[in-house]
Write a structure and sequence with these properties.
It is a single chain. The radius of gyration is 16 Å and the shape is globular. Helix 2 packs across helix 3. The chain contains eight helices and no strands. The protein is an all-alpha fold.
């Protein structure tokens, strides 16, 4: 497993601009200095997770760091009362893909139709929490595609899939598992 210093030297500069672009496109109302603080906190969280031994040896660092960054951003936005996500486009191809939340049909309709702002926040937090707690193949594949915005070719190369068709098939299986987990959790919480 890489040391924290190796991870920082490899990924800190490389992910800076993609991280800023991702956060600014998904969260409205954040200033540059706030995003910079969140980026710093992301690498501190990586350090803490390494120290605790909670990171698996085969971790896809690009996807992991971006996922941690999104979680850090959500935590920051909730604490500051800025929990607002920017709308995404709704294309089907890899270049113009929707974010995973907008693909949660018909669950996203429930979020849109919920008039209580606290219930909306709870629903989105549940969806993001489940996305962040994925295991197995899904742990790296979905965040790589939806958060890190990697192409299917990059995912094949990075995660070792034989071809893009097998990666797309696995993405669909993982996404359906995610959708069912979100539906079950929202039902359990009485939100749907």
């Amino acid at each position: 497993m890489e040391t924290y210093e190796e991870i920082v030297s490899r990924w800190y500069a490389e992910l800076h601009d993609p991280f800023f672009n991702l956060i600014k496109s998904r969260f409205t109302g954040l200033r540059e200095d706030e995003v910079e603080d969140i980026y710093q906190d992301t690498f501190l969280a990586v350090h803490e997770n390494l120290h605790r031994g909670s990171i698996e040896a085969d971790t896809n660092w690009r996807a992991y760091i971006m996922r941690i960054g999104l979680n850090q951003t959500m935590t920051y936005c909730k604490a500051k009362g800025k929990f607002v996500t920017a709308p995404q486009s709704a294309g089907d191809d890899d270049d113009e893909r929707p974010d995973w939340l907008s693909e949660m049909a018909p669950l996203e309709t429930l979020v849109d139709e919920t008039s209580d702002a606290k219930d909306r926040e709870r629903m989105i937090a549940v969806m993001n929490g489940i996305m962040g707690s994925l295991t197995g193949k899904c742990r790296d594949l979905l965040p790589s595609f939806y958060y890190a915005r990697m192409s299917m070719e990059e995912i094949c190369q990075e995660l070792g899939y034989a071809n893009t068709d097998s990666a797309k098939s696995q993405r669909l299986k993982c996404f359906n598992k995610l959708k069912e987990a979100v539906r079950a959790r929202l039902k359990m919480m009485g939100l749907i």
